[in-house]
Task: structure prediction
Amino acid sequence: MLDLIKIFCKTVELGSFSKTAELLKMAPSSVARSIDNLERQLQVTLFKRSTRSLILTDQGQSYYAGAENLLLRSEQLIAEVRNQQHNPQGLIKVSVFESFGRLFLCRYMSEFLTLYPRIKIELNFDNHNVDLSRDAIDLAIRIGHPQDSSLRARKLLTNTTCICASPAYWQQHRAPDTAIELTEHNCLLLNPHRQKNYWHFIYAGEQSKVLINGNLSARGGSALLAAALDGLGVVQLSTWLLNPYIESGELIPVLQQWQPSLTQQGSGEIFALYHSDYLKPGVRLLIDFLLEKLQS
Result:
């Protein structure tokens, strides 16, 4: 309807369909049909028409005064939105699973907020799926494709895992040479609600799974990582979480010729999830920023 209002206002200013058509690069008949459509929607007559002139009716004069203000406000809103694209501002609510949030997001938030000082970030560490609409979440970071088909997903990182334990643990327990030997170890469990827990492997092109047991389970990786560092047991966690401790020697990997995963389908991929293609400018900037950091 806004396009019809623009044609109406320009017709009032120029006083004829033909001049309006020439300015807007339309056919005069198209201008006349646009005015007809506007009158039909408003259910009023805006012009008294003759072969020589167009004269505004009383209702047309009243509508023209309001229409000019409407067009001016519309142009102001467009300018404000475009300005926000270049100078983003406002609150972004982010839900992220705990280990990834603490290791990656917290590390980079200072740099991001320095680049965009008018943006505010609210971080929520959640190891369970949240309802983005109900909880007013702008961006969720999760492992695996979203089950909600209405959400958009953008891949941040491929999630691979590694089998590790502390030097102190390996001093007391013989390191396994094959995956099946993990049944003899205290394995720290990432899926506490399952009655049986399996770790999956590919070795020499063959898939296998090993039933594991242990005395500690948790929904998030942070608790299991802390326990592994304390020498409690063997852990399978994401390589992005374990690598700093492997490099420092605080954890020692085993079964490196075996390709482990948490499920038969693999350990998943990490995605940024959001509502629609029309994101807040700040949310799009945050996703692009994280992609750049993770890829580097």
User: Anything to note?
Assistant: The chain is about 40% helix and 25% strand.
